[in-house]
TrEMBL record:
It comes from the Bacteria. SUPFAM superfamilies: Glycoside hydrolase/deacetylase. The keyword Metal-binding applies. This is YdjC-like protein.
Length: 288
C-alpha cells in the first residue's frame, strides 16, 4: 500500500521533525504574488505553487523563472470558488465542456467537479496548464491540487498520478486530505504520502486566532514529513474584492498567514524545537 517517504535516504534521522511551509495560490492576484514573494524572501515559507489559469500567473511565473532557488509547484486548478472573481480553463472551454459552467468559468464547488468533470477532459486541461508553465520558464519541483480536487475520486486521482509520471514530478498525496474530501480508500501500492498536513480553520481563526493555532501545531509536530499549508496575501482592496463574502481563506486570513510566517519569533520557535526545513526539490531526489 501507500507508504511514507524514506527520508533517511536524504540523510535525516527517523526522529527528525521535518517541516515544509507551503504557500498555495500564487498567481491568484497581485496581492497574493507580492505577499508570497516577500514571505519566501524574508520569512520561513520554503515552497509555493502557481495557479496557471489565473490573471496574475505571468507575474509569478516571471519570478519563479528568475528565482529557481525557491521550491515551485504547479497548483493544478479545476475550480473557481470566488463569488465575483472568476477564471476558466487554459484551453478553449469548447474543448473541455465538462469542466465549466454556463459562462465558461470553472465550477465553483468541488461537488460540481465530481459530478460533471470527465477524466479525459481533466487530463487534457491539466496538461495544458503544466505545458504553459513550462513554456514560461518554470522548472517545477512538484504538482499539487487546488482545493485537493484531484483527490475527489479514484478516476481523478489516477489522472493526478499519470501527470506526475509523465512529467517526472512528485505529486502531493495525503491520506488525511483524501479523507477530508470524502475519498479515503483510493491510495494504492507505490503511492508516497506525507506524514501530516496542517491547515488552519475558520473556527480557530475566529476563536483563538490563527497565530495561536499555528503555534500549537508547531509545538505538537511529530517526526517525519510535515506540511503546513498556507495562503499568503495582503488584506488590501484588491484582495478584499477577490474574497468578498468568503471569510474562509479570505483576505484577512491570508494577511494573518503572511504575518505569522514572516515573524522572526516563528523562525525562533522552529529553531528552539530543532525543526528542520524540507522541500520538494529534496523529495525529487528519492522519487525520480
Amino acid at each position: 500500500m501507500a507508504k511514507y517517504y524514506d527520508l533517511e535516504r536524504l540523510g535525516y534521522g527517523k526522529n527528525d521533525v521535518l517541516l515544509m511551509v507551503h504557500a498555495d495560490d500564487a498567481g491568484l492576484s497581485c496581492s497574493e504574488n507580492a505577499a508570497t514573494i516577500e514571505a519566501l524572501e524574508t520569512g520561513i515559507v520554503n515552497s509555493f505553487s502557481i495557479m496557471v489559469p489565473c490573471p496574475w500567473f505571468l507575474d509569478m511565473a516571471n519570478f519563479a523563472k528568475h528565482h529557481p532557488q525557491y521550491d515551485c509547484g504547479i497548483h493544478l486548478t479545476l475550480t473557481s470558488e470566488w463569488k465575483q472573481y472568476k477564471f476558466g480553463p487554459v484551453l478553449p472551454y469548447s474543448e473541455v465542456p465538462s469542466l465549466v459552467d454556463k459562462q465558461g468559468f470553472f465550477h465553483a464547488k468541488r461537488e460540481l467537479v465530481k459530478k460533471f468533470a470527465k477524466p479525459q477532459e481533466v487530463k487534457k486541461e491539466l496538461k495544458a496548464q503544466i505545458d504553459r508553465a513550462l513554456a514560461n520558464g518554470i522548472n517545477p519541483t512538484h504538482l499539487d491540487s487546488h482545493m485537493y480536487t484531484l483527490g475527489l475520486t479514484k478516476e481523478l486521482l489516477s489522472v493526478y498520478r499519470e501527470l506526475g509520471h509523465e512529467y517526472q514530478l512528485p505529486i502531493f498525496l495525503s491520506d488525511q486530505l483524501l479523507s477530508e474530501v470524502g475519498n479515503p480508500l483510493s491510495l494504492q501500492e507505490g503511492d508516497n504520502i506525507v506524514n501530516a498536513v496542517h491547515i488552519g480553520n475558520l473556527k480557530a481563526m475566529e476563536s483563538i486566532g490563527l497565530d495561536e493555532w499555528y503555534t500549537q501545531q508547531i509545538n505538537n509536530l511529530k517526526a517525519g514529513f510535515n506540511v503546513i499549508l498556507i495562503h499568503t496575501a495582503f488584506d488590501n482592496m484588491e484582495m478584499k474584492q477577490v474574497c468578498v463574502d468568503h471569510p474562509n481563506f479570505g483576505s484577512q486570513w491570508r494577511q494573518m498567514d503572511f504575518d505569522f510566517f514572516t515573524d522572526p519569533n516563528t523562525a525562533k520557535l522552529l529553531k528552539e524545537r530543532n525543526i528542520k526545513p524540507i522541500t520538494w526539490r529534496e523529495i525529487q531526489k528519492i522519487t525520480l
